[in-house]
């Protein structure tokens, strides 16, 4: 039995009001949703299945542009009532004050909004519509005023990677919970774009790491960049400074998947290979029995990734491997790392740490926390208990460590999206 998913990305529609050069979905401008996209009744049925297969998971509702989906509020409300944590990934240009309030009232925890430059000109050229930058900024302000957690998102290119400090300033000015930096995977219309070189990729990751250390109050995270665990020196099973054991490494097919507008299930938005169809199979059947997912969970990567001393803690980007040669388990062609002489391929070594028991009341409280937060909170509470020489966590210990940790994390649950896989729109 495979572990339950903790994050799901759902491309609700290919309909979009922009024409972004790098769109992985190859979204299009039209008046109505395409006839092959999941209808409202089908989508509500999928939400019921998600609640069963992935209880408490974060559900990222994106597109295209999800605000063009006329039943978005109904889907958000259904997801929230089913115990999921709905989040909307949007370009922000259609997010008025009224719509932001409607989403908040329906149960949206936060919004991921894309802003690709401090320079309106570059953003507008990339997004294919004049004035997009200003309208996106207005959307961010509307979300903030409605009380939605904001995650600012930027896709990195050679033209804007030098703007990282300026973009971080903007994220802080808008009160963003997190700043997500996406490294391009050349799929969809993205195949027309020039990706960063492997050397530039590495240099940019080190710049992101430096910024995070300089500005600890803002979560600054690299997305589609499993090498960040190597930059941080984190081995398999290790966590530190907000990086959970699984954070930043590729979760595709292991704790994460994507649903297309037509109901196909794929390992992630950048991997078009299909694991199954929700119009023909149940979600649980796809999640548990898909040969594609089995490969991602059970096989070691090939090539240099399979021989690497970070092959478990990093493992490379499976989407880049697939895009480069069609083999989802091949080596990641963007990694420039060479293991030191004599380094052995990484093997999973269970940490030798004293076990921490949980009282029934404490465990019950833990199970009421959304799934995508639960593992992080459990790990950090156990870490604090060990530091105090304790062998058991009870409800009083949880309450004592709530200020500044649990309270802030749960109140701004959307901030944790920074460590997951919200896809840039």
From TrEMBL:
Q: Which UniProt keywords apply?
A: Iron, Iron-sulfur, Metal-binding, S-adenosyl-L-methionine
- Matches recorded under Pfam families: PCP_red, Radical_SAM, SPASM
Which coenzyme or cofactor does it need? [4Fe-4S] cluster
A single Gene Ontology molecular function, please?
metal ion binding
Q: Which PROSITE patterns match?
A: RADICAL_SAM
What are the recorded Gene Ontology BP terms? chlorophyll biosynthetic process; photosynthesis
InterPro entries per record:
4Fe4S-binding_SPASM_dom, Aldolase_TIM, Elp3/MiaA/NifB-like_rSAM, LI-POR_suB-like_C, P-CP_red_C, Radical_SAM_PqqE_MftC-like, rSAM, rSAM_sf
**Annotated Radical SAM core domain residues:** 2-219
Name of the protein in its database record: Radical SAM core domain-containing protein
Q: Which organism is it from?
A: Candidatus Muproteobacteria bacterium RIFCSPLOWO2_01_FULL_60_18
């Amino acid at each position: 039995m495979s572990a339950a998913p903790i994050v799901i990305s759902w491309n609700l529609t290919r309909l979009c009001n922009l024409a972004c050069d790098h769109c992985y979905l190859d979204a299009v401008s039209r008046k109505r949703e395409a006839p092959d996209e999941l209808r409202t009744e089908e989508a509500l049925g999928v939400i019921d299945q998600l609640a069963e297969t992935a209880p408490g998971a974060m559900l990222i509702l994106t597109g295209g542009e999800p605000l063009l989906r006329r039943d978005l509020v109904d889907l958000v409300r259904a997801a929230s009532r089913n115990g999921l944590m709905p989040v909307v990934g949007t370009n922000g240009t259609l997010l008025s004050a009224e719509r932001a309030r409607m989403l908040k009232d329906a149960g949206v925890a936060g919004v991921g909004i894309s802003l690709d430059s401090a320079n309106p000109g570059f953003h507008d050229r990339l997004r294919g519509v004049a004035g997009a930058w200003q309208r996106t900024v207005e959307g961010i302000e509307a979300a903030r005023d409605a009380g939605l957690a904001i995650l600012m998102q930027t896709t990195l290119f050679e033209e804007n990677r030098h703007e990282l400090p300026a973009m971080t300033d903007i994220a802080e000015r808008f009160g963003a919970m997190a700043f997500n930096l996406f490294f391009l995977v050349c799929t969809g219309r993205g195949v027309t774009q020039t990706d960063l070189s492997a050397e530039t990729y590495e240099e940019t990751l080190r710049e992101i790491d430096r910024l995070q250390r300089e500005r600890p109050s803002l979560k600054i995270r690299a997305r589609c960049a499993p090498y960040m665990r190597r930059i941080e020196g984190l081995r398999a099973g290790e966590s530190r400074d907000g990086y959970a054991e699984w954070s930043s490494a590729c979760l595709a097919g292991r704790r994460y998947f994507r649903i297309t507008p037509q109901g196909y299930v794929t390992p992630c938005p950048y991997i078009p290979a299909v694991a199954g169809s929700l119009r023909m199979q149940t979600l649980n059947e796809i999640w548990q029995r898909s040969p594609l997912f089995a490969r991602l969970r059970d096989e070691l990567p090939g090539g240099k990734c399979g021989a690497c001393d970070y092959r478990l803690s990093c493992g490379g980007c499976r989407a880049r491997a697939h895009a480069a040669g069609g083999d989802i388990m091949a080596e990641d062609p963007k990694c420039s790392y060479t293991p030191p002489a004599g380094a052995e391929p990484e093997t999973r070594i269970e940490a030798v740490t004293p076990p921490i028991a949980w009282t029934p009341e404490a465990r019950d409280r833990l199970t009421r926390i959304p799934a995508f937060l639960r593992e992080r909170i459990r790990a950090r509470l156990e870490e604090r208990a060990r530091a105090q020489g304790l062998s058991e966590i009870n409800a009083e210990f949880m309450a004592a460590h709530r200020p500044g940790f649990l309270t802030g994390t749960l109140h701004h649950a959307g901030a944790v999206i920074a460590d997951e896989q919200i896809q840039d729109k």
